[in-house]
Amino acid sequence: MAGSAVAAGFTSLGNAGETSDDGTETLHSLAQDIIPISPAERKERVARAQRLMIQNKIRALIVEAGTSMEYFTGISWWPSERTMAAVIPASGEIAYICPGFEEARFRELIIIGKKVYVWQEDESPYEQIIHALIDADISSGKIGIEEQLRFFIFDGIRKAGSTMEYVSGDPVTIPCRMIKSAAELALMQKATDITVAAMKIGISNLKEGISPAEISSVINKAHAQMGARPDFALVLFGTSSALPHGSIKPQLLKKGDIVLMDCGCKVEGYCSDITRTIVFGAVPTNRQLEIWNLEQKSQTAGFAASQIGIACEQVDAAARKVITDAGFGPGYKLPGLPHRTGHGIGMDGHEWGNMVKGNKQTLKAGMCFSIEPTISIPGEFGVRMEDCVYMTEEGPKWFSQPAISIDKPFA
Known about the structure:
The strands form 5 sheets. The protein has a 6-stranded mixed beta sheet with strand order 4-3-2-1-5-6, with helices on both faces. Strands 7, 8, 9 and 10 form a 4-stranded antiparallel beta sheet that branches. The chain has a 3-stranded antiparallel beta sheet with strand order 13-16-17. The chain is of the alpha+beta class.
């Protein structure tokens, strides 16, 4: 259904949406063959973290409920006001700190380790964290704090354990999470494939008078029908497409509008992120076609620059040069490219490894990031093509193949 709408050309992009069927009812799961991250791989992640701790003279790493805790332990837990944390010592077994009334449910989720320190509602979870450190023979030295650990938890820990030296856990968590394994890449590829299919369904539902929210709903529904967890579906029409993350102004689609769709989902905790820009229901104007082609040239330049050993900032410089050479900018000035060229991606939609001026981090095999050099023209429209890549020893590989032309958003 979506494929025929896309292939038909400029004037029929979206016409299939004029029926009452949004095309999601007959979708089937594409996630039936996924292979979750194995316990063995999680154990190796912990072992690698421990090696990095030893190298950096960090005696333990503290993470709370959130992405890094799930990355290392496989436990997904909502970060509430009740502290749930894990202590990973540089040597020895991981330990968990858990609210007492959640212990039974929490123990059902444990894959790695078995030590659980519970705290009751009238007790301090921070003292239990210190007890876990002392039981691991750690009463002084550097304790790494993962960057997403909230301040009230950190403040409680440092007051309960004043003999420790608290430092950033970045030297441990960033090298671990930035380099993806084959299993992680496979999950990100599956998420990408599902988003491509969901966006095609979204495009096939475009029709005059429809709102961005209606198309977003269709895309999210398609994501879920195909076995993914919907994450986001940003849809912008006309002049609002010049605002990279949208507008609160009401928008109803009309022929000749630019349509910008930025969508993603999660599969087993791993993200996709794709953006496409098309023209609805009419032959593109010369201006629309000119800017779209410039955007494509910029994205291609960013991809070509993405080689092992070069700095992340060089990817941004290569993509941005195409746009500034065409008379836009310079820098972040509008009209032009108002943001970095790309961001790292993995279990979080935005991770380390940003393609931005000043980032000297060199590209390594296993790094994953977006290439999305938006061109924003306030009062007119914006064009963004976004696809994510993963680095190999031979160079970058696309998770999703870039758009072929303004009327062929998917290969």
